Amino acid sequence: MKRSFFLILLFLSFSLSGQEASKWYKGNLHTHTNLSDGNETPRRVVRWYYDHDYNFLFITDHNSLTEVARLDVDPRDDFLVLPGEEITNSLAKQRLHTIALFATTPVMPSKGKSSVEILQKDIDNALATSALVQLNHPLWRWSLTSSEIGQLKGLTLMEIINYNRDSNNFPAGGSRGTEGLWDDLLSKGFQIYGTASDDTHDYLGEFLPSLSYPGKGWIMVRAEELSPQAIRKSLERGDFYLSTGVTLEDVSATQRLYSLKIQARDDEKYTTLFIGKDGKVLREDLSLTPSYAPEGGETYVRAKVISSNGETAMTQPLFLKRP
């Protein structure tokens, strides 16, 4: 959704000030069970994420709202199971999928004459259930362009990394991948936060590259407590980062300084890229405490950390005041 830079600034400026009691919580936003096209029961799906040190999980079966209350039976543990639905739609070869996170009632797929019309109807219907909306795998089978996405209103999140094989996350063959698509949108002033998701379908047998198995991409949310309300509040204000293996101890972004603290692991090395308008690299930093001081001409700044083992973390954009 397009907003003035002043409003975007209010939403996207974040720092540790006043958040001393906050903690980082690990979660997955996009998960399927055998109630749609996954191959494991909801209870066993939940158990996998619980056993692998996640703190929250959304069950997002296709075009149905899976009951999660019976899956989250221990209010004393440090794990939440949250409701969601993948609204699964298409137009010709375009795959038009969104997720209604925190949905309270099922959302039926809409019909329309264009991708924008269909997606907007689905988004509006999801918002009517008090859901938070994520756009899924926008380059799956090359379904969407930044021009189409930029016409949508009501989106909060977009998958930058989705580990299904057809998602085309990474730059190749003339495509800049979903990260480049994200920069196209941000460069036009479109407010949207980036996520990583497993889009898990396959839990049984060997975890082969062709399968959608769990544990490949997640988000780390900074919140005051582990509750549905606190997790939602942090997602809405962009107080989280996406990861495929890199852990950040701290993220602080103000108009004067964007800084990170990387949690080192074994003998890994790290490169942090501070990225601005049109995907331009503003600074490269090889330290464990990388930082970037805006010089005044930038539109936005975000950070990407790459480890020597090929894993990454990406933080959310900070929009800057125009000179």
Molecular structure report:
There is one protein chain. With 323 residues, the chain is of the alpha+beta class. The protein folds into two domains: 5-244, TIM Barrel (Alpha-Beta Barrel), CATH 3.20.20.140; 245-323, Immunoglobulin-like, CATH 2.60.40.10. 17% of the residues lie in helices and 28% in strands. It is built from six helices and 17 strands. The protein has helices at residues 5-12, 42-51, 115-127, 146-149, 177-187, 228-237; strands spanning 23-28, 56-59, 80-91, 94-101, 132-135, 157-162, 193-197, 218-223, 240-243, 248-253, 258-262, 270-275, 281-285, 291-292, 300-307, 312-314, 318-319. The strands form two sheets. Strands 1, 2, 3, 4, 5, 6, 7, 8, 9, 12, 13, 15, 16 and 17 form a 14-stranded mixed beta sheet that branches. It has a three-stranded antiparallel beta sheet with strand order 10-11-14, with no helix packed on it. Strand 3 and strand 4 form a beta hairpin. The protein is globular, with a radius of gyration of 19 Å. It starts with a helix and ends with a strand. Mean pLDDT is 92; it is low at 1-12 and 14-19.
In short:
It contains 6 helices and 17 strands. It has helices spanning 5-12, 42-51, 115-127, 146-149, 177-187, 228-237, and strands at residues 23-28, 56-59, 80-91, 94-101, 132-135, 157-162, 193-197, 218-223, 240-243, 248-253, 258-262, 270-275, 281-285, 291-292, 300-307, 312-314, 318-319.
CATH class of the largest domain: Alpha Beta
Q: How does the major sheet shape up?
A: 14 strands, mixed
The fourth-level CATH homologous superfamily of the largest domain is Metal-dependent hydrolases
| Order of secondary-structure elements | HEHEEEHEHEHEEHEEEEEEEEE
Q: Return the average pLDDT rounded to an integer.
A: 92
Helix residue percentage:
10-25%
Number of strands: 17
Annotated CATH topology of the largest domain: TIM Barrel
Radius of gyration: 19 Å
Q: N-to-C terminal Cα separation, in Å?
A: 23 Å
The CATH architecture name of the largest domain reads Alpha-Beta Barrel
Residues in β-strands, percent: 25-35%
Uncertain regions: pLDDT < 50 for 5+ in a row?
A: 1-12, 14-19
Oligomeric form: single chain
Give the count of helical stretches.
Answer: 6
Structural class: alpha+beta
Global geometry: globular
Number of domains as seen in the coordinates: 2
